[in-house]
Amino acid sequence: MDIEKVRSRFIKHFDGQTGNIYMSPGRINLIGEHTDYNGGYVFPGAVDKGIMAEIRPNGTNTIMLYSIDLKDRVEFSVNDPKGPRATWARYIYGVVREMLDRGIAIAGFNAAFYGDVPLGAGMSSSAALESCFAFALNDLFGNNQLSKWDLALIGQATEHKYIGVNCGIMDQFASVFGQEGKLMRLDCQSREFEYFPFHPKGYKLVLLNSKVKHELVGSPYNDRRKSCEHVVEVIAKKHPDCNIKTLRDCNFDQLESVKAELNEEDFKRARYVLGEKERVLAVCDALERDDYATVGQKMFETHEGLSKDYDVSCEELDYLNDIAKECGIAGSRIMGGGFGGCTINLVEDSLYDTFIQTACEKFAQKYGHAPEVIPIVIGQGSHKVC
Ligand code: GLA
């Protein structure tokens, strides 16, 4: 990312002094979609793109923010009970409130920031923004007393309480904990995780951004979560001795046993989640054997499930998936929440150029623009730059 870009704007839009610069990344997810809020596994990694912010305490009680990308300025008082209207500033307001609630004595500061992770592409630009400010404010006002998990949970609470998206923990976790060249398998129930070095020989990971903007606020995302919770309630009632709290605790037989009590939509959604839970584990096994053919196969299966059962795809993403199959690449699927954004593709080196060219041409013919090609570099989690 471009340190000069943030520094020059910080100097220009505030009092000419400099502050500390922090960066937090967006993320990819190899497999394990819509499993985080169901107590399942996810397999994300941070990317080399994200949010970079320069911040300096200003000795007052006013927080002064400048969004370089939007050329927009917002100010609010640290004790403001309502907070700003602009959505971008509400993310930062939420982080500040959550940190105050955890006893961090945040006072006024100036901040300018920009991002290079495409917005609404399913790469967690909002988690990057939350974790960038959580990390920075913990450093500037909290003596780094909050743990990485605290920082991730602050971001998630911001989404729930100040934005209205009842997201899981994957995005904030990946943004805070990421390490260069490594994916992470997180058990969202126990919060245990492992780093997996990811350097697939003979393959590349690449994102194709359909540019269909996905917007989780007010989207059916929260409905998917409700469906899953409803199914859990029904199964738990039928099997009271099984201590069922999330879909993680359920199996296919239990789901079948309540089929008649569920509507078809809820049944299919739960069926997808149970399948995805198993696919993440199968992918971990396959990675241990360097068996990328299986990894890719599972990605295709996930796409099918997300499209047909979980119903979070769109025509453009299905089309990109069809092209991936036609080109014979190892694997491809929708990445992130869905409803637009990117596909993540696992591509043999020998097929890479043809795949990219074919996807760009065919997609452009049908939708009037080529997808954005984003080669994946697995980068570092939240950190202080200087
Ligand atoms: C969004 C949410 C995550 C997760 C994914 C789907 O990115 O923020 O918590 O649920 O969708 O896997």
Automatic annotation (TrEMBL):
Ranges for domain GHMP kinase N-terminal: 91-179
UniProt keyword list: ATP-binding, Carbohydrate metabolism, Cytoplasm, Galactose metabolism, Kinase, Magnesium, Metal-binding, Nucleotide-binding, Transferase
GO MF annotation: an example: metal ion binding
Enzyme Commission numbers on file: 2.7.1.6
SUPFAM superfamilies: GHMP Kinase, C-terminal domain, Ribosomal protein S5 domain 2-like
Residue span(s) of domain GHMP kinase C-terminal: 286-349
Keyword flag Cytoplasm: yes
Domain Galactokinase N-terminal: 9-57
UniProt-listed PROSITE patterns: GALACTOKINASE, GHMP_KINASES_ATP
A cellular component annotation (GO) from this entry: cytosol
Superkingdom of the organism of origin: Bacteria
InterPro entries in UniProt: Galactokinase, Galactokinase_CS, GalKase_N, GHMP_kinase_C_dom, GHMP_kinase_C_sf, GHMP_kinase_N_dom, GHMP_knse_ATP-bd_CS, Mevalonate/galactokinase
Enzyme class: transferase
The family this protein is said to belong to: Belongs to the GHMP kinase family. GalK subfamily.
UniProt cross-references to NCBIfam families, sorted A to Z: gal_kin
Protein name as catalogued: Galactokinase
